[in-house]
Write a structure and sequence with these properties.
The chain has 612 residues and is mainly beta. Helices cover 2% and strands 47% of the residues. The chain folds into 3 domains: 25-349, Glycosyl hydrolase domain, family 43 (Tachylectin-2, Chain A, 5 Propeller); 356-507, Sandwich (Jelly Rolls); 522-610, Immunoglobulin-like.
Length: 612
């Protein structure tokens, strides 16, 4: 039986594709450092930013299902299929999506890679479960995926891309179809299992493992089809790599992964209609048996990737309950798979998300951070106003799916207290922007910039008496070169004794040659037309040269667009906003706040209404 060395050959891209190397003792320390960089602490940057994002991938408004992650030129790419939250049925999975990230936390450009081919009989029902790999011999990327006909019978198709952006179906459609004499599969049925391809390359051949079912004697049995191919078009069935030999053999084995680490072989999969990820481990695949199977972790659809030698990224689907019993959400969670030096005894290592930036965590109030999602909505409160998928809330107790702590909507209450202290950094910008909400307790519930040596509070903000965070700003040009740290403190046990914080970002947008020697140079804000449909001109004046940022916020306090830092001479100026947000999409009708801020932190604001 072939034993893949997790055979992704090394392409010209800056990626280590080999997923299974035997780590020498010295390499274990290096692996720990690399793991910390990948999924834990990060090096300090010139301009600090704390946004409380975690290693999750979400697709707003949709459940994320089977996925494949690759890395090219330092960028991570995820390919996945989804199901709408409003219609969570398998038939509704009509698109293979694509998104990108520089760091596995901040994802963007969620765009279709393949859309179900309505005119193709074999895949007009749905498209599922992409498996993306690099085909170095042909200088391209390749994708195997599941296509379903109108009766949801499943086959495997092939698509190719020169750049991970443009995909086209390739070869005969489909490329892998099970032998009906060998497998329980018939297009006359209403559902025939043959899905979730896992693709790898070994010894000059492509290999694919596919979820299937066949008769073993007279017993319908879940098996993993194993096919080989020289060209991804012509496939040879070499017999199942594993069959379900448990007390419930008819259950199929879904979303498989075959991993070689050191001298140990690992097979990961989900058992149909069961929660959790099963792993079989043995020095040789002949030793795999369901009798020795164990639950590796909760979740579904596991994937193991080794983008850096010795560091095995472990990702899987994680589910959670939506607010007010509105259904179930599914996201991808990313952690690390650790083993003994010989590759045995794999465990999932889940570093604490606050470890990356916050070196001191004390008190009960820090146990649930960072908060995942807009947790106040889960207990019928106003929005937190978070940006992205995470923020810090000192009374919330839901760090996210599979975190092992809390649940959606759960809070620790106002009485708990705690404190976060960030890593020291040198102030290099001229201002720090942040979002703050919570109780109005300036002395006991606050976020502060403090001197790193003596703890003196240099700047601070408290809540505004409400859950929703609002934009704040500290002018720090006079602190340049000073060693500081950020502190978030909840020392208040009374009613409303909590603080919400997000998007702490140091910014350098003031020309060094201009001394900010005036309190404000702003005057005469005008927004016209108002209401707008949707473009409007934002006019203001400066009575001295300086930098200005024009920004538009929604009523939740979220910045939807800004002009960037603009240097201009004294006198009147105008900015045209076309009603398009930072994501490139038109903003919806409604009320917005326009704010013009100068380089001293003074601002003028006005209200704008968009009507369409």
């Amino acid at each position: 039986m072939p034993r893949p060395a997790f055979g992704r050959s090394a392409p010209v891209h800056a990626r280590v594709w080999t997923r299974a190397r035997h780590p020498a003792p010295a390499a274990l320390a290096l692996a720990a450092i690399l793991a910390a960089c990948l999924l834990g602490a990060r090096p300090a940057s010139a301009l600090i930013r704390y946004d409380f994002e975690q290693k999750y991938f979400t697709h707003p408004g949709r459940q994320v299902w089977d996925f494949s992650i690759v890395r090219a030129d330092g960028t991570y790419h995820i390919f996945y299929h989804t199901i709408p939250l409003a219609n969570p049925t398998a038939v509704a999975a009509d698109t293979i999506w694509h998104a990108k990230s520089p760091d596995l936390s901040h994802w963007h450009s969620r765009t279709p890679a393949l859309i179900t081919a309505a005119g193709s009989p074999w895949e007009q029902g749905a498209s599922w479960a992409p498996a993306v790999e690099r085909d170095e011999d042909n200088n391209r990327w390749v994708m195997l995926y599941t296509g379903c006909d109108a009766q949801m019978n499943q086959r495997i198709g092939l698509a190719t891309s020169p750049d991970l952006e443009r995909w086209k179906r390739s070869g005969p459609d489909p490329v892998i179809v099970p032998d009906q004499g060998q497998y329980i599969w018939n297009t006359a049925s209403g559902w025939a299992d043959f899905r979730d391809p896992f693709l790898y390359r070994q010894d000059g051949l492509w290999h694919s493992l596919v979820t299937a079912k066949k008769l073993v004697g007279a017993q319908p049995t879940g098996v993993l089809y194993h096919g080989t191919s020289p060209d991804l078009i012509t496939w040879t069935d070499v017999g199942p790599i594993f069959q379900n030999n448990s007390s419930q053999p008819a259950k199929v084995l879904e979303s498989s992964q075959y991993v070689t680490i050191g001298s140990w072989q690992h097979l990961l999969f989900g058992v149909f209609d069961a929660v959790g990820i099963t792993i079989l481990s043995a020095p040789d695949p002949s030793g795999w048996t369901m009798a020795s199977a164990r639950l590796l972790d909760n979740g579904y659809a596991p994937e193991v990737d080794t983008f850096d030698a010795g560091v095995h990224m472990f990702s899987r689907l994680a589910n959670y309950q939506l607010p007010q019993s509105a259904g179930t959400g599914y996201v991808v969670r990313l952690d690390t798979l650790r083993t003994n030096a010989d590759g045995s005894n794999p465990i999932v290592w889940k570093p604490h998300a606050l470890d990356a930036d916050w070196i001191v965590r004390t008190g009960t109030a820090t146990l649930g951070g960072p908060t995942f999602g807009d947790n106040p909505l889960y207990h019928s409160e106003p929005t937190s106003g978070l940006v992205g998928t995470g923020y810090f809330g000192s009374r919330d107790y839901y760090p996210g799916p599979l975190s092992g702590r809390g649940a959606p909507g759960v809070t620790l209450g106002d009485a708990v207290t705690g404190r976060l202290e960030g890593r020291p950094f040198t102030v290099t910008g001229n201002r720090i922007a942040l979002l703050v909400g919570g109780g109005e307790y300036p002395n006991t519930c606050y976020v502060a910039l403090v001197d790193a040596n003596d703890g003196t509070i240099l700047r601070s903000e408290t809540g505004n008496g409400g859950v929703t965070m609002t934009p704040r700003q500290w002018l720090v040009g006079d602190l340049r070169g000073r060693q500081c740290r950020i502190v978030i403190a909840d020392e208040e046990g009374g009613a409303g004794g909590f603080i919400n914080v997000d998007e702490i970002e140091e910014i350098d947008d003031a020309p060094a040659a201009v001394a900010p020697d005036r309190v404000s140079g702003l005057a005469a804000l005008s927004i016209s037309p108002n209401p707008a449909n949707p473009a409007t001109r934002i006019t203001y004046a400066l009575d001295r040269p300086g930098t200005v940022v024009v920004a538009v916020y929604d009523l939740r306090g979220r910045r939807v667009w800004d002009s960037g830092s603009r240097w201009q001479a004294a006198g009147p100026a105008a900015v045209l906003w076309t009603g398009v947000g930072a994501d490139g999409l038109p903003v919806p009708s409604g009320a917005y706040l326009v704010r013009v801020t100068d380089d001293r932190g003074a601002y003028l604001s006005g209200r704008l209404t968009i009507l369409k």
